[in-house]
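Section 5: illustrative case.
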């Protein structure tokens, strides 16, 4: 199989390619099984994290255990994504689509669970429900996504596959908070959707583990 070099501004990454037939077969018959098996295996880890955070939150992350937000999923449909809360609660989202992350709202414990990506664990429930996949384009806040559809070429097309807990753009490009960064992210998401395969999902999974154990989250 060929590999493709993708130029994302200061980032140049090489992603494994696949044949069209292999990708279509995997998407139709293999990817959902891959998601279900790994999500079930992760359930004990999720339950243990719930118990630990319930004990620690009153001291280091006061407020609800979970944070639920409306995000844009496959075919641009809205769904409720669930995460472990890592920020002080607010009544409504005020951050703009291209504003930097609100560092001042991240709690002491929240900073750790974001670095280790523990905050994403509850989204295995979204995977089991069929809202998400383990690997795919990261879903954006719904109101921000509607703006990107109007302003970013190819943004609507990235929603042709289920969004993921982790994704190629997330692991190989990282967090973005600018128009140019969003365009680069979309290009990588489209590469992922086009070259979808078990090999590519395993590549992203491996890169995700490297990020988690390297504590490179934001």
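Designed sequence:
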């Amino acid at each position: 199989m060929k590999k493709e070099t993708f130029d994302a501004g200061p980032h140049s990454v090489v992603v494994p390619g696949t044949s069209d037939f292999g990708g279509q077969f995997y998407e139709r018959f293999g990817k959902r099984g891959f998601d279900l098996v790994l999500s079930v295996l992760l359930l004990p880890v999720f339950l243990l994290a719930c118990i630990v955070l319930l004990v620690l939150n009153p001291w280091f992350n006061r407020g609800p255990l979970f944070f639920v937000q409306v995000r844009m999923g496959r075919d641009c449909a809205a769904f409720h994504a669930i995460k472990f809360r890592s920020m002080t609660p607010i009544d409504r989202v005020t951050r703009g689509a291209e504003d930097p992350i609100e560092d001042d709202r991240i709690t002491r414990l929240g900073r750790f669970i974001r670095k280790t990506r523990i905050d994403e664990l509850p989204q295995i429930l979204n995977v089991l429900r069929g809202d998400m996949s383990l690997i795919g384009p990261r879903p954006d806040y719904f109101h921000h996504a509607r703006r990107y559809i109007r302003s970013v070429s190819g943004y609507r097309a990235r929603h042709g596959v289920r969004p993921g807990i982790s994704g190629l753009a997330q692991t190989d490009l990282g967090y973005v908070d600018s128009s140019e960064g969003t365009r680069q992210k979309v290009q990588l998401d489209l590469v992922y959707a086009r070259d979808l395969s078990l090999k590519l999902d395993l590549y992203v999974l491996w890169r995700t583990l490297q990020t988690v154990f390297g504590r490179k989250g934001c």
